[in-house]
Amino acid sequence: MARLWALLFLLVPALASGHALVPLREHPLLRQAQALLEAARKGLEAQAAPLALNLQGNYARLGYECTPASLCPSLPATGGSLTLSLVLTPFSFGETADGLARAQIAYRRAELGYRKALTALQAQAVAAYGRHRQALLGVEAATKGVELAEKALEAARKRQANAKELREAELALLEAQNRLEEARRGLELAKQAALGLVDLERPLPEIPPPKGSTPLALEEARLSVAEAEIAYGSALRALLPQVQASYLLYPSGNDTLALSLSSRSLQPTLSYTRQDPARQPTPVPSGGSYRTQEELRLSLSLTLSPGLLAALEAANLQKQGAEEALRAAEIQAHLQEASLRHALQGAEAALALAQRHLAAQEQALEETRKRLALGLESPLGLLQAELSWMQARLGLAQAESEYRNRLMELYQFYGELLPEVNP
After folding, report:
1. H-state helical runs in 159-215
2. Does residue 173 form part of some domain?
3. Could you give the number of structural domains in the chain?
4. What is the rounded CA–CA span in Å between residue 67 and residue 50?
5. CA 355 to CA 359: how far, in whole Å?
6. Does residue 356 sit within a domain?
7. Where does the record place a coiled coil (predicted)?
8. How far apart are CA 302 and CA 246, in angstroms?
9. What is the pTM of this model?
């Protein structure tokens, strides 16, 4: 359990309290991934257990045909036995090694699934945060647009503009009001989309460029190759003879001690059996009897079947297919990485341009205010400059959101999680 919590603390550094991504800790998809990771860890622990106990009991009801018939009442009517076995795993070999390797792969897949789920949620949260920010600025700009349209209509009425100009001014006001209503609806939708993903009242953590580790798809393809290699090794061992060795001690007619070992796993098994009725001595024709006190057994088993050969060939083809899939994943990952980084560069250039555009609009607004103070600009011109400045802010928010989204695509590509950021 301590190892799992350590892993989760490493995997969820960006979910520290204090910033906008805190709600992700309670997201159902993340909890599902955590449960699957814990299940895989338990499965790995089960496979790596150094010993196992087995208890087995038997009961039998006996019927006889005796000659003479008077012999039957003296024979036991029931029989039973109880066996306690201890299976040891001092090291991994054969089937035991395969089971452990499969459990390790399952655990690794669960880790990758956890990373995939969390990076996807982080990308959704960052995108939702950006959409909400854009929606807020959109409402502000639309509100300023309505104010500008109202002032323009008022100015047209004051100067007694012709009917055509008045109609155009009234239509411009209606369009501005519609844009404001649409912006408000967009804001409500953005709030709903952010529920359970991001806290809109807290700051979004900084998103630095990812470190660029192994792509997630490439890691999954490598696990598939490892699984195929395990299956091929198992199919190959099925063609080999199996040797079983056992050493048995009979301290009494009721008790048996046994030590057994199989070439398939090299797991020594110690067992004790208590049976009733007891084994009777074996009589000999010349008189007397004997009882076995110890026994050494060696058995050899070899199965030859066209089905086993076909299974081996199928496993080999699956291994080849997994290797080819890995090569294809490497090519695809290289192309996808180049495409994502190209998109990131484009978003970065657009962000720099939006920043310069906003700076230019801020300067133009300041100049408009100065001209208004000198009587060289009308209040309507100031409203137009403020609207242009707000639209530039909206454009910058869109560029920032697009840049963050491109970054998060790279985080998803690598399966890399956001580093810890102090709020």
Report:
1. 163-194
2. no
3. 1
4. 53
5. 6
6. yes
7. 139-193, 312-371
8. 18
9. 0.82
Domain hosting 373: range is 2-52+90-146+192-239+323-414
d(CA 285, CA 274): 29
Closest by CA to 44, choosing from 1, 95, 107, 94, is 107
- 169 and 161 in contact (C-beta within 8 Å)? yes
- How do beta strands 242-249 and 255-262 pair? antiparallel
Give SS3 for 10. Answer: helix
Tokens representing 309 are: 């050969």
CA dihedral 389, 395, 401, 403 (to 10 degrees): -120
CB distance 93 to 100 below 8 Å: no
DSSP H or E stretch at residue 231: helix 216-237
What six digits make up the tokens of 119?
A: 């990076």
What Å distances lie between residue 400 and 21, 99, 198, 345, CA to CA?
Answer: 18, 49, 17, 13
C-alpha R_g of the chain: 39
Instruction: Give, as one character, the DSSP assignment of residue 262.
Output: E
Token look-up 């399966």 returns: 415
Looking at residue 355, which CATH number applies to its domain?
Answer: 1.20.1600.10
Q: What six digits make up the tokens of 318?
A: 């699956």
Neighbours of 180 (CB within 10 A): 20
Measure CA 316 to chain center.
29
Helix (H) or strand (E) holding 25: none
The pLDDT tens digits along the chain (423 residues) read: 444 434 443 444 444 446 788 888 889 999 999 999 999 999 999 888 888 899 999 999 988 888 888 888 888 888 899 999 999 888 888 888 999 999 999 999 999 999 999 999 999 999 999 999 999 999 999 999 999 999 888 888 888 878 888 899 899 999 999 999 999 999 999 999 999 889 998 988 888 999 888 999 999 999 999 999 999 999 999 888 999 999 999 998 889 999 999 988 888 999 999 998 888 887 787 777 888 889 999 999 988 888 989 999 999 999 999 999 999 999 999 999 999 999 999 999 999 999 999 999 999 999 999 998 888 888 888 889 999 999 999 999 999 999 999 999 999 999 998 875 332
Q: Is residue 97 in some structural domain?
A: yes
Q: List all residues 6 or more positions away from 323 whose beta carbon is below 8 Å from its beta carbon.
A: 225, 228
In terms of residues, how long is the chain?
Answer: 423
Report the C-alpha gap between 79 and 276 in whole angstroms: 6
Residue 305, number of CB atoms within 10 A of its CB: 10
Q: Which two tokens stand for residue 184?
A: 């408000």
Q: Is 304 part of a structural domain of the chain?
A: no
Peptide bond into 277 cis (omega under 30): yes
